[in-house]
Predict the structure.
Amino acid sequence: MIFFSVGLPGRFAEWCDGVIARLAGSLGGPTVARQWPSLDEMLGYHPVGRVLDQVGLFLMRDAPEQLVIGARQPDERLLAALAATGIPFIVALDDPRGAVVDILEKTRVEPAAATRAVANSCPFIMRYLTIPNALTLHAKNARSNPSGTVSAIAGHLRIPITESQVAEIVEGLAQAGLAPVETNGGAGTQFLPERSRKTLDGALAPYGAFFAGANMSQFVWTRDLFAIVGDPIKKPAHLIDVSGGARCLIYGPYIHLPPGSWNARLVLGFSREATGHIFLVDACCCDQQLAATSFRPDSTGIQTAEISFSLGEKTGQGVEVRVMVLDEHAKGQLAFGHVTLTPLALEHFDGATQARDNFEAVLDL
Amino acid sequence: MFFFVVGLPGYFSEWCDTVATRFAERALGPTATIHANTLEELSLGVMKSDARHAVISARQPRGSLRRTLVETGRGFVAALDDPRIALADLILGRGTELAGAIRAVAGSCAAVTALVSSTQSLALQRDRHWSRRETTASAIAQHLQIPVSGSEVAVLAGSLPTSGAFDLHDATAWWNGLPASDRDTVTGALAPYLEGAQSSEIRSITWTPDLFVLADRPDQRAVGAVDITGRARCLVQGPHIILPAGRWGLSLKLLFSREAADREFTVEVLAGAQLASRRIRPPAEHIMEVHLVFVVDELNDDLIDIRLSNERPAFDGAVTLIGATLVHQTEAAIMQAAIEAAS
């Protein structure tokens, strides 16, 4: 049998994977638990393979009797397969910022890289909340009642279990360092520098609100999520010399967004010498330019550039935003602020219930 | 547990599927038959099935499934057949239309040929092995490591049919009754896989217009003049067939009408993504041969398509697809061509 657990790349989803693996193990035969994509892959920049391809690979390679898949970027094909087969599965929800803290505790990556990994998980998971065969679990509730959560998972997956087995699973996972407690003693992101907290909040707070049942608001991609052309390690935190010919100056962050229409507003600063030269900003996805606008800053100081674009189902590496200078003889300096992304119209947004409520309100029913 | 049976579409492969499934059921319990050519289809099949064991029946095993099968070191059955007989199985036995049957058999030949040389395969020929059903069934059980006794083999093999729904005379009569153009289509697409063709040779495949369709009317074959009037669009596409991995040279022959001359067209080769493309501008009313070289990756899971599109709207004109010839450029052939060019 195959069991699916969909969740963010954090501690709570890992705990759920562990619970399901132990429950599946109780059915007998070799049990294999795999996470896809792995954290390393999520931190990288290569497009990840489809979950069902990996499931096929695990089935053939490991020949398990029970296979537990912890899907961290669950794609549309898996969604369609789960909807078509009606196989019960688990959605493990946590505050995405907590998942970033979990990654930072486990690895030595920069907060921006961990933020990107979690931000690339959230839009995929959003889609799974409306499927009837999903059991959505919130970390907060599970922390207050781990035994009840294990029982709920077992019931949903139709795996018979006794109370003593529930206690064994909770205890066994705690001993293995997988208790569903908050990392960092619940202090959240307070230990991070303010700049990193801004990056986390900007990229993830709207998802946190959405998972908690509220509407999704604006995203802010701060400069820490972007890179400077020619020096990808360096963040555009300082002034960038625009002289040196027409070229791309800044690019990033390769983050997926929910499908729909978006407005991106870039905040840029220009020195006196840079005014009067032509710049271009664009948004790309899957090697395709989605929108672009060129402009000539006419005064020194802060300027904004806006583009609107539509996104289909999430594929490839995610959205890339670029800033380019188009004048061969441009001079002066540019400062990169941030990108504000406003959802204009999202597909599958908020689920059917909220949409129906809105219709009913409009129609005065 | 999974047991793999790859093979050409037709009754013999189905017989091998049945043998493996019945033996697995007898030895291990409920066993499903899952038709899967990709890892994703395998996953979906397992998700839909409640059985703990399954026979994976693959008629066109794609690149990633083939590689995984080889990497796992798992034994599998390869059910082989004369492609023309497999074609007759589909057309006479299943009522498949000719172009669809050619696509199925040609794609299967390309995919299965890539696996037959593996040491893990038990290669079974329809003409040699099907008549000796008990011995063949026993060999299948042994190769797939399904523990069944000799008496069980005898009982099970005895209960299974030994031939398809028609005999060879029917197939011969059907073949002889085909119009010459249909026979050309079959021979062009299947010739490299017929008995006697060596895999080390440069293999030439010809796809006739019968295997292509009008892009905006996919139920119509691209036979004869195709009207280019209207918006810029894809005009012709096909044949949607698997090709063996490697480097291929395509020669696409097209006839342009006078009105279509001096207009821009694009020829593309695709396997999911674009593999090669060329923009052409026929200078006058004449036959034009477009040459493209492309590489099909070992792990390619997608079918090959050729697409012809006009780049601008047209008020008049027509293009006729004459045919596509593909030459598998083996290293030896590339070297030979280089030597000839140098001399």
